[in-house]
Amino acid sequence: MNKGFTLIELVIVIVILGILAVTAAPKFMGISSDARKANLDQLASTLQTSAKLAHTKAILAGKDNTSAIIKIAGSNIRMAQGYPTATKDGIVQVITDANQWHPMVPSVNILANFHKSVAGLMMFSQYPINKMSATEAFNTQCFVLYTDLSTAAKSQTGSSSSHNSNKHELGLIKKTICYLLSWVGADQYVGFCRKPNDNNDKKSGIQINKNFGTDGPEISIVSKGC
């Protein structure tokens, strides 16, 4: 009676296992990626809800138009213009189980990537802080960025005045450029060609919650690397 595998049978088994590994691995990787993106969406929603609840508290306390400290659930929360600041004693204190999201303050280099030169940002990563720096967490391209109201307002005001100053002079030129680029699908990669209601920055992978970035803190989901 023969025992064990023959060489041919062993080769066939190895080939089958190899095929299964090649076809199944991408699917499992896709599932993990979707799960991480879903976690970021959950965090963004939590930040939005928490900021709105804190804003309601500030309104009731008559401190919605100034910088102040208000008490929420027994904790002192630092506020700016009626919303939690992007600090450890601000938005991080407000959300439940904040440490599971590993909040960290972005470095100057990270701020430059977002074209922001002012303080007031907090980055929430799914990767433990003790295992990587803020720069390394940024390079994963899988995190949520919270910009408090004072910073978001300055950014919007600055960009608005810049556009207004060139609107009349360069309007026709920009339209012509965007029209020509649209024939080859390259207009989406030029900043002034993108439509104002476009929520996805297709080049950088940054998704911005427009509805909550106009009258409240700006919440950005970076999921390109998830």
TrEMBL record:
Stored InterPro entries: N_methyl_site, Pilin-like
Pfam families referenced in this protein's UniProt entry, alphabetically: N_methyl
Protein name: MSHA biogenesis protein MshA
